[in-house]
Amino acid sequence: MDYRAVPDEQLAAQLQAGDKEVFGTFVERYEAKLLRYGTKFLSRTEDIEDIVQEVFVSAYQNIQSFDTSQKFSPWLYRIAHNAYVNALKKNSRLPRVMFDFDTLLSHQAYEDPAAAERDRADMRVIVDKGLEQLAPKYREVVVLYYLEELDYKEIAEVLQVPTGTVGVRLRRAKEALQAAYDKLNITYGE
Question: What are the chain's domains?
Answer without folding.
Answer: 8-91 (1.10.1740.10), 101-183 (1.10.10.10)
